[in-house]
Design a protein that fits this description.
The chain is 55% helix and 9% strand. It is built from 10 helices and 3 strands. The N and C termini lie far apart (74 Å). The protein binds manganese (III) ion (MN3).
Length: 237
């Protein structure tokens, strides 16, 4: 069969389009999504009765996932910034293009804060910190009980959504502070050791409006051995 010039051209175009298809698919698959939702280090119901399974599902699978997705989308046109670990991105927030600063503050902050939050809890949590962290908390606040009291009162005082933190300052002092929304202590040069989520989504299903009860109960799931290791790493930086 002899093809007209027009038919040949059409065939070639179709062939070219077909040849391009796999390439386009490959490009889509290669789309860089440098930040990813870490799986929970324990089952969803592992922290009950202190934190209920439904709260954990919504908090991790919906809230945290949304922070990660929005962060990846916002950074898609900024390849050079995508290379940075999330902590470095937050530490250097003021160097970022202004177009993405707010998104990185809110959603990058949300990603980092929640990643630390999941890791700082454990079904076998509770008790008191030992080792260097235990000693430093006692030396700084007078006692572990006094530290807990100050931490809870700071968490209760924070108006609206935010976080209450135990941080290591650039002068290597332990301090309790709060941040609004999803702001990270990294944005002001502090290293977060431990943080509790003061957003209502963290406690409302079980504790309703009683943030004080949530703050009190939360100590039962705090993973002090893991935090002791984290403290050693933060001090070494
Ligand atoms: Mn939260």
């Amino acid at each position: 069969m002899r093809l007209s010039r027009r038919q040949t051209l059409r065939l070639l175009c179709t062939a070219t389009a077909l040849a391009l298809l796999p390439t386009a698919e490959a490009a889509a698959a290669e789309e860089v999504t440098p930040y990813s939702l870490p799986p929970l280090p324990y089952p969803y119901d592992a922290l009950e009765p202190y934190i209920d399974a439904e709260t954990m599902h919504l908090h991790h699978d919906k809230h945290h996932a949304a922070y990660v997705n929005t962060l990846n989308k916002a950074l898609a046109p900024y390849r050079q910034w995508q290379q940075l670990p999330i902590e470095a991105l937050l530490t250097r927030i003021h160097e970022l293009p202004t177009a993405i600063q707010t998104t990185v503050r809110n959603h990058g902050g949300g990603h980092a804060n929640h990643t630390l939050f999941w890791q700082s809890m454990s079904p076998s949590g509770g008790g008191e910190p030992t080792g260097v962290l235990g000693e430093e908390i006692a030396a700084t606040f007078g006692s572990f009980a006094e530290f807990q009291d100050q931490f809870q009162r700071a968490g209760l005082r924070q108006f609206g959504s935010g976080w209450v933190w135990l941080v290591l300052t650039p002068q290597h002092q332990l301090e309790i502070c709060t941040t609004a929304n999803q702001d990270s202590p990294l944005m002001t040069g502090n290293r977060p050791i431990l943080g509790n989520d003061l957003w209502e989504h963290a406690y409302y299903l079980t504790y309703r409006n009683r943030r004080d009860q949530y703050l009190e109960a939360w100590w039962q799931v705090v993973n002090w051995p893991w935090l002791g290791d984290r403290y050693a790493q933060m001090r070494a930086l």
